[in-house]
Design goal:
The structure holds three protein chains of three kinds. By secondary structure, chain A is α/β, with parallel strands linked by helices. Helices cover 36% and strands 23% of the residues of chain A. In chain A, strands 6-7-8-3-9-10-12-11 form an eight-stranded mixed sheet, sandwiched between helices. In chain A, strands 2-1-4-5 form a four-stranded antiparallel sheet, with helices on one face. Helix content of chain C is 62%, strand content 0%. In chain C, α9 runs antiparallel to α11. Classes of the chains: A alpha/beta, B alpha/beta, C mainly alpha. Chains in contact: A-B, A-C, B-C.
Chain lengths: 335, 232, 319
C-alpha cells in the first residue's frame, strides 16, 4: 500500500467529510411552525417558521430581542405556557414532537435534546452544589448510582478544562462567576451526549473574555461530540465562527437562510445587510427605526418601514420565502 | 483661563479600612481630566472598579484620599448652593435599562417629576418634553406606557432623555450598551454621539468592550491592578 | 452596499419613517399621565381563587354588618325583654341575663370589634412603615438606633401591660387601641426595612439620588409604591391579630363595658352564668363571628400575594 502524501490525505478527508455532510440524516425538521398566545388579544408570535438541522450540524438563529427566537426553542422542547396555541410540524428523527404526551417528551428532554437557557446563574438551583446538580440527569435518565455518576461528572469537568475539578464539584452557583456557571451548565447538558443541543442566547450578560472562552468551549464540543447545535443569539459576530448555516429572523418569521460563509460575503436580505453593518468591525452603522411589536405588525413586508430599498409593492404585499438550492430569502428583490 | 473641567487628582478608594482591617483597595492615585465635548473612555477587566471610579467622579461616593475638582473648586469643600448646581451638571446613566424607571409609574409621570424638580413653569413642560423626545428619537406615545412595555433600547434612550432635561455638562455612561442587542447598540451609540455634538456634553464612557471605546472616545484609560494608565 | 449607507441623522427620527405604525401627528392635547399605579390585586385561578372569593364575600358581609347593623338586628341592643330566654321566633338567638336580644347585640358588636381591629392595625402599620423606611433608606447610625428600639419594643408583653394598666385606669376602648397599636409594629418595620434595603439599590432610586431629588421625595414616590403590595396583606393580618387580642382582653374583663364587642359578650356569657346553664345560643355566636371574621381577613391577606416584577406584563412580551 502506497502512503499518500499528507496534504492529499487531509484534502481527501475533508472532501469525504463534506460529502457525508450532504448525506447526513435530518435530525430535526420544523415545518410551518405557527405559535400564538391567547390573552386579552391573540398575538401571533411565530408565523410559518421552517428549517431543518442535520446530525452534527450547527444552525444559528439570529435576530433582535423580541423577534421570537426563544419561542422556537421552547416550542421544540414543548415548554410553552398553557395559553399558547401551536400549529405546524416539529419532527425529531422522524417522530412528531408536537403529538407526544408529557411522559414521552420527558424522556427525550435532557437525553436526546438538551437546552441551555439564557441566564446561567438563574438556571442553577442555588441551594444545591454543582456536583449534585450535574449528577442529577445521570441518575434520573440512566439510573446510575451516585458514586459512578460523580466519577463521570468529574471526568466531564476535567475534559472541559477545569483544573481543580474535584473542588468545583463542591462549589455553589452563587460562588462562581457567570462565565463559570455557563460552563457548568454546558457540562450538565452534554453529559448524556444529546443528539441536539439548543443554546438560548448563551453569550448574554457575559463580558468579552467570557464570550471568547464560551466560543472555544462550544467549538470543542462540536469537534469532540457529534451533537447538532441550535444556537440562538442576537450577535452575528458571535455565531460567525461557530455556525455552519445561519437563519436570520425578523418579527416572527425567517427572512434569510444561508451557509455561514455565503451569508457574510454576500448577504441578500436588506435586514441581514443592516445587521452586518451594525457590527463593530463595520463601524456600528445602525438600522433606522425599531423592530415592530408583535401585536401591531406593519402591512406587507414586515421590514418595509426600515428598508432603504422599499418599493410600493413592499407596503401592500407580504413576500413569501423563496428557496434556491442551499439559500432561502424573503424579499421582493429576489423574485 | 477659567477652567470648566472635571478633574480627578490622585484619588483612591479603599473599602472597609479601619483600625482592625486594612480594607480592600479598589484603585489608587488615579488622576485624569475631562472637558465638555470630549469623551474619556474607561476600560479594563470587569469587576475591577470602573463603576466605582465613575461614581466617585460623579460625587455620589467620596474618595478615601485625593480630591475631585469641578470648575476649579474641590467637591468636599463646596458650599451647598454650588454643590446643588454641581449635582445637576454631572449625571450618571446606569447599565441596566430595565431598572432605570420606577415600574409602578408611567414614563410620563417619571418625566413630570424631573420637570417639577427643576421648577420649570407648567407652560413650558410640553415644549421641553417634545424637544427631548425629538433629540432621542421617540414619539410621544411612549409617555403613556409603563417601563415593562418598552424594549431595552427605548428605555435606554428615555434614560438619556431624562438626564438631558437637567442640561448636564458631563454624563458618566456606565456600560450603556452591554445589556442591549448588537443592532440596537449601534443606534444608541450614534444617538449618544449626536447628543454630544448638539449639546457639548463631556462623556466618561465605561465599557469592557474595546470596540465601543475606540469608536466613541477621544482619550482612553485602562484601569488595571488598581492603577489607571492613560493610552492613546 | 452603497444604497444602504445611512447618515447618522436618519436613525434619529422615528417619526420620519413612512408608514411606521408608531408615527403620530402632533397631538393637540399634551398631558402628562400622572398616576402612580397602586394596583395590587392579582387574579388567581382555581383553588386559590376560591379562597379569595370566600374570604372577600365573608369580609364584605361583616363590614356591611358593622356599617348597617339595623339591617341584621330586629331590636335595639339596649331594649330589655324577658331574660335567659331560649331561641324562639321573636328572639332568634334568645336573650341574655338582662334581657337584651342576643342577635341585636351581635350585630351592633361587629362595629366595635372591627373598629378596634382596624384602628390598632392602622396605627401599627403606619408606625412600622415609617420606621422601616427611614431605617432602610438612611442606614448607618439611624438604622442601628431604630432597629435597637424595635428590639426593645418587641420584648414588651402586650397583654400583661394592659392588665397592669387596667388596674390603675378605667378600661376604655382608646387605651386598648393605643396599646395594641403602639406595641405591634415590629414585624412590619422589619419587613419594610429589608424591602427598602433591596429597593434602594435599584437603578431608578440611584438615578433619582443622582439628579438631586430630596430623600423624602424618593421615599414617597419611588420606594413606597413598590412596598405597598407587602403592606396591604400585613395590614389585614394585623387587623385579624388585633381583633383576637381585643377579644381576649375583653373576655378577661379589661374591655370597655359601655361598648359591647363580641369579646365582651363572651365575657358576660361566662360571668353571668351562660356556660353553666348551657346556653349555647349566647356564647357560641360571638365566638363563631370572631373566628369567621378573622378567617375572612386572613384569606384575603394570603390571597393578596403579589409576585415581584410582574406588573402589567402581557404574556407574549416576556418571552
Amino acid at each position: 500500500m502506497r502512503l499518500l502524501p499528507r496534504n492529499t490525505l487531509l484534502e481527501r478527508n475533508t472532501l469525504l467529510e463534506r460529502n457525508t455532510l450532504l448525506e447526513r440524516n435530518t435530525l430535526l425538521e420544523v415545518r410551518d411552525l405557527e405559535v400564538s398566545f391567547q390573552g386579552m388579544e391573540t398575538v401571533t408570535v411565530l408565523s410559518g417558521i421552517s428549517f431543518s438541522i442535520k446530525e452534527s450540524e450547527t444552525l444559528a438563529l439570529v435576530g433582535e430581542t423580541g423577534c421570537g427566537k426563544s419561542i422556537v426553542a421552547h416550542a421544540i422542547m414543548n415548554l410553552l405556557p398553557p395559553e399558547s396555541r401551536v400549529k405546524g410540524n416539529i419532527e425529531f428523527r422522524g417522530k412528531s414532537l408536537s403529538e407526544m404526551n408529557e411522559k414521552e417528551m420527558a424522556k427525550i428532554r435532557g437525553r436526546e435534546i438538551a437546552i441551555i437557557f439564557q441566564n446561567p446563574s438563574l438556571a442553577l438551583n442555588p441551594v444545591y452544589s454543582i456536583g449534585h446538580q450535574l449528577v442529577e440527569p445521570l441518575c434520573v435518565h440512566q439510573k446510575e448510582k451516585k458514586k459512578t455518576a460523580l466519577y463521570r461528572v468529574a471526568l466531564a469537568l476535567k475534559r472541559m478544562g477545569f483544573v481543580n475539578f474535584s473542588e468545583c464539584m463542591n462549589y455553589y452557583p452563587s460562588w462562581c462567576s457567570g462565565g463559570m456557571n455557563q460552563r457548568f451548565l454546558i457540562a450538565a447538558s452534554t453529559i448524556l451526549n444529546p443528539a441536539l443541543l439548543i443554546a438560548d442566547e448563551p453569550s448574554k450578560g457575559l463580558d468579552k473574555k467570557c464570550i471568547t472562552e464560551l466560543e472555544a468551549e462550544l467549538k470543542n464540543l462540536k469537534m469532540e461530540s457529534k451533537s447538532a447545535l441550535l444556537l440562538i443569539s442576537h450577535d452575528l459576530g458571535f455565531v460567525r465562527r461557530l455556525a455552519d448555516r445561519i437563519a436570520v429572523m425578523y418579527a416572527g418569521e425567517i427572512v434569510e437562510l444561508a451557509n455561514s460563509s455565503s451569508l457574510f460575503e454576500n448577504p441578500l436580505h436588506p435586514y441581514t445587510r443592516g445587521l452586518l453593518n451594525s457590527l463593530p468591525e463595520k463601524g456600528f452603522i445602525p438600522i433606522p427605526g425599531f423592530s415592530p411589536p408583535l401585536n401591531s405588525l406593519p402591512s406587507g413586508c414586515r421590514f418595509h418601514p426600515r428598508c432603504p430599498l422599499r418599493e410600493k409593492r413592499c407596503i401592500r404585499v407580504h413576500p413569501e420565502i423563496k428557496e434556491t438550492g442551499e439559500k432561502a430569502v424573503r424579499c421582493f428583490l429576489y423574485p | 483661563m477659567f477652567s470648566i473641567s472635571l478633574r480627578a487628582d490622585s484619588i483612591s478608594k479603599i473599602y472597609g479600612a479601619g483600625l482592625l482591617s486594612e480594607g480592600r483597595c479598589v484603585f489608587q492615585n488615579v488622576s485624569f481630566e475631562i472637558r465638555p465635548g470630549e469623551t474619556f473612555g474607561l476600560t479594563g477587566p470587569s469587576g475591577e472598579g470602573k463603576s466605582t471610579l465613575g461614581r466617585v467622579i460623579a460625587g455620589i461616593e467620596k474618595p478615601t484620599y485625593g480630591t475631585v475638582y469641578y470648575e476649579g473648586s474641590s467637591l468636599s469643600k463646596m458650599k451647598r448652593t454650588k454643590y446643588m448646581a454641581f449635582r445637576r451638571k454631572v449625571q450618571i446613566m446606569f447599565q441596566d435599562p430595565t431598572g432605570a424607571f420606577n415600574p409602578r409609574k408611567k414614563i410620563g409621570s417619571s418625566v413630570f417629576d424631573v420637570l417639577k424638580l427643576l421648577k420649570i413653569p407648567n407652560i413650558e413642560h410640553a415644549s421641553k418634553t417634545k424637544e427631548m423626545l425629538i433629540t432621542i428619537g421617540l414619539s410621544e406615545e411612549v409617555l403613556s406606557r409603563y417601563p415593562s412595555q418598552l424594549s431595552g433600547g427605548q428605555l435606554q434612550r428615555l434614560a438619556i432623555g431624562r438626564i438631558l432635561l437637567l442640561e448636564p455638562e458631563y454624563i458618566i455612561l456606565d456600560e450603556p450598551t452591554s445589556a442591549l442587542d448588537v443592532s440596537v447598540q449601534a443606534q444608541i451609540l450614534h444617538m449618544l454621539k449626536n447628543v454630544q455634538t448638539k449639546k457639548n456634553i463631556g462623556y466618561i464612557l465605561i465599557s469592557h468592550d474595546q470596540a465601543v471605546i475606540r469608536f466613541m472616545s477621544d482619550t482612553c484609560g485602562l484601569l488595571e491592578n488598581r492603577q489607571l494608565r492613560i493610552i492613546e | 452596499m452603497n444604497q444602504f449607507d445611512c447618515t447618522v441623522n436618519s436613525c434619529m427620527k422615528e417619526a420620519d419613517i413612512e408608514g411606521f405604525s408608531e408615527k403620530k401627528t402632533e397631538s393637540s392635547n399634551f398631558e402628562f399621565p400622572e398616576e402612580t399605579s397602586y394596583w395590587i390585586f392579582q387574579k388567581h385561578k382555581g383553588f386559590q381563587g376560591l379562597f379569595n372569593r370566600i374570604g372577600a364575600f365573608l369580609f364584605i358581609l361583616f363590614v356591611f354588618m358593622a356599617l348597617f347593623p339595623s339591617v341584621f338586628a330586629p331590636y335595639a341592643p339596649e331594649e330589655r325583654f324577658i331574660p335567659y330566654e331560649a331561641p324562639s321566633e321573636e328572639h332568634l338567638l334568645g336573650t341574655n341575663d338582662i334581657g337584651n336580644d342576643i342577635l341585636s347585640e351581635l350585630a351592633f358588636g361587629a362595629r366595635i370589634s372591627m373598629t378596634v381591629g382596624f384602628m390598632a392595625a392602622l396605627i401599627s402599620t403606619l408606625i412600622g412603615t415609617a420606621l422601616g423606611l427611614c431605617a432602610g433608606y438612611f442606614r448607618g447610625a439611624l438604622d442601628e438606633l431604630l432597629m435597637g428600639f424595635t428590639d426593645v419594643v418587641l420584648v414588651i408583653p402586650k397583654i400583661p401591660l394592659i392588665i397592669v394598666l387596667g388596674a390603675f385606669l378605667r378600661p376604655s376602648i382608646w387605651i386598648l387601641i393605643s396599646i395594641l397599636g403602639l406595641l405591634s409594629w415590629e414585624s412590619t418595620a422589619r419587613v419594610t426595612r429589608s424591602k427598602t434595603l433591596q429597593l434602594r439599590e435599584a437603578g431608578y432610586v440611584k438615578s433619582a439620588q443622582c439628579m438631586g431629588f430630596s430623600s423624602y421625595h424618593i421615599m414617597k414616590s419611588d420606594i413606597f409604591p413598590n412596598i405597598i403590595h407587602i403592606l396591604f396583606p400585613k395590614f389585614m393580618l394585623a387587623t385579624a391579630s388585633a381583633m383576637i387580642s381585643e377579644a381576649s382582653l375583653s373576655f378577661l374583663g379589661l374591655g370597655d363595658v359601655s361598648m359591647k364587642s363580641w369579646g365582651m359578650m363572651l365575657s358576660f356569657a361566662f360571668s353571668q352564668g351562660g356556660f353553666i346553664r348551657d346556653m349555647w345560643w349566647w356564647y357560641m355566636p360571638p365566638g363563631i363571628c370572631i373566628t369567621l371574621c378573622v378567617l375572612s381577613i386572613a384569606l384575603i391577606g394570603f390571597g393578596l400575594e403579589a409576585k415581584e416584577g410582574e406588573y402589567f406584563r402581557e404574556g407574549a412580551n416576556t418571552l
